[in-house]
Amino acid sequence: MALAIFGISNDGLNLVVNLLVLMLVVVWLALIVYTYLDAKRRISDSFLVGCATLASFIPYLGTAVYAIVRPPEFLEDAHERELEIKAAELRVRQLEELTCQGCGYPVEKSYLRCPQCERRLKDPCSSCGKPVDSRWALCPHCETPLAGKRESSRRRPPSKPKRPQRSPSREPDPDPRQA
User: What is the C-alpha separation between 28 and 63, in angstroms, rounded?
Assistant: First the structure.
């Protein structure tokens, strides 16, 4: 005869109680594994992960306490949030202030020269005097073409010199060597 738990002598009822106890033990072991895996994703300190796992060996109560005191977010989420904050701060800093390429001193967009090392940052527009980048073809403020740059920003292939067309009149074309 099988061992009776809780003094139950009925075989059918004893089987139900044994299966119930087995289920409780399996759930308890699953909670230990869950606590370990969850603590590993949320806590960076391995000692605290071990403490959380040891606390979960107290059946059901340890896992419940861990669920109450665990960190609210995963380590990956916290790291991603920190990177987003740093990127946003960098974008704001780049928008608000620029730095001199020579010395790293913070300069504003309207500066023509660095106040620290006096390096030329931008050239003034010949028409309106506002700072323009040397790579620009025209001033964005007054639309004046900048010196040394073509009006069109599109690159055209170099064309061959056009031959003078013959005039419809009967006069001979002028000799190009005489010009």
Answer: 9
